[in-house]
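Input chain follows. Return structure tokens only.
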Amino acid sequence: MQSIYAFNQSENPDLDKQEKFMFYSIDQMLDLYALSLQLLVEMRDAEATFLIKSQKKHLATSEEKNYSKNFINNEVIALITGNEDLQTYIENKKLNYWKQDDEYVSILLKDLRKREFYKEYISLKEVSYKQDQEFVSKLFKKVIAPNEKYYDYIEDKRLTWVDDFPIVNTAIAKMLGKISEKNARSILMPSLYKDDDDRQYALDLFRKVILKDDVLSEAVEGKTPNWDKERIAEMDMIILKLGISEFLYFPSIPVRATINEYLEIAKEYSTPKSSIFINGILDKLVKEFEASQKIHKIGRGLR
């Protein structure tokens, strides 16, 4: 959707160039994923440094001398640290920004130390793997993901990350809920695509909407009696064309899945009433296409 919008807005649209940027943007999702996981490691390391400095103070308090090492010894973060694929990826992509941007690590640590779940965690005399896992999950969900300064940092670092942020955060939260010593190697660094067909789908959908623009525009004509085509919001028109493309050119995608997906996208990226408008148009088109036998879905459960 974003790539089609950028292509349409360009003074000198270049299909090949926009395709390359689309895949570049998708690839950056994994960069954000790795950077966010490394943030957990950097917070742990910063806490270890804080502990050492506290204990070396000339007038260290009893609490400082006996500071809990539960966070520092957290087994889940140890699995992240020890994952060679992740660390190699970070090194090769030069993603360890936290060495130069350590003020954000400090901001998040200060927030963490105020939380009751943190105080309860470091007060534990013995910690199980499950408790380590629950702590890291809460750290990510309650401290890192919702932090506005961290969000601003991500936005400033790479603009394309803003839209990836909720998707990546959800992926990390799910992974942290499942990770164990047995599966860490297989789930810590996910694949961007389910398979080669998944990547090809993105390319095919982008090309269909661009190259079949006349056909798709014609399909919308007459379905909006109260709206001229020029009055339909640009983003709504793109979403409609994406949906129509899936109806006509992607036989393995169920009609209902297409409609549901683009309604969710409309709610996120377009006007408050767009989802209702788009739902009405796509429903009309489905009935029309089915009556004229233009929709040919294959496989079970594709209606």
